[in-house]
Design a protein that fits this description.
The chain has a single domain (3-181), classed as Growth Hormone, Chain: A (Up-down Bundle). With 186 residues, it is an all-alpha fold. Helix 2 packs parallel to helix 4. It is globular. The chain has six helices and no strands. Its main location: membrane. InterPro entries: Mntp/YtaF, Put_MntP. Pfam families: Mntp. Probably functions as a manganese efflux pump.
């Protein structure tokens, strides 16, 4: 696998985490750098670790992982997105993308990096340097998410109170996209 292919794979894998980072940014008021670093680190570490885990699991467990990974991602993102939409409609402030607790960030990072696990399994069958691939995925995801928080904050300033509602829609759409891709519909 060429460096360009690894880069493009890393960029594609980073897009779900980037979209969630936009949602985080929409809720960020003053702590852009702190929240950008936090999003970048969580998503970057998980996106980089999952291909490594998938590579280590290899073919032996592929059938078990691929059967349910998309459902886990869909359910987690739909619940979090639904909660954000509900609280936006009720006029309550959601803590999902504004508190950025370890629990919330870990759930979001797992949900957006499950597809990287499957990619890691495929790396086991290709002539891929897993260290180069995993580190490239982690670095590109970190950069994308850091930038995503900044872009999201600008969008949040423009959208005002609609930002949380839009953030919830984005999370549900990401979960739906993951599910439909794995079901072969997209």
């Amino acid at each position: 696998m060429s460096i360009i292919s690894i880069f493009l794979t890393a960029l594609a894998l980073a897009m779900d985490a980037f979209a969630v980072s936009l949602s985080i940014g929409m809720k960020s008021k003053n702590e852009r750098i702190k929240n950008g670093l936090k999003a970048g680190l969580y998503f970057g570490i998980f996106q980089g670790a999952m291909p490594l885990i998938g590579w280590l699991l290899g073919i032996k467990f592929t059938n078990y992982i691929v059967k349910f990974d998309h459902w886990i991602a869909f359910i987690l993102l739909a619940i979090i997105g639904g909660k954000m939409i509900y609280e936006a409609i009720k006029g309550e402030e959601s803590d999902i993308t504004s508190d950025l607790s370890v629990k919330v960030m870990t759930i979001l990072a797992i949900a957006t990096s499950i597809d990287a696990l499957a990619v890691g399994v495929s790396f086991a069958f290709l002539n891929v340097s897993i260290v180069l691939a995993a580190s490239s995925i982690a670095i590109i995801t970190f950069i994308a998410c850091f930038i995503g928080v900044f872009i999201g904050q600008k969008l949040g300033d423009v959208l005002g109170g609609k930002a949380e509602f839009l953030g919830g829609i984005i999370l549900i759409l990401i979960g739906t996209k993951i599910l439909l891709e794995h079901l072969g519909i997209l």
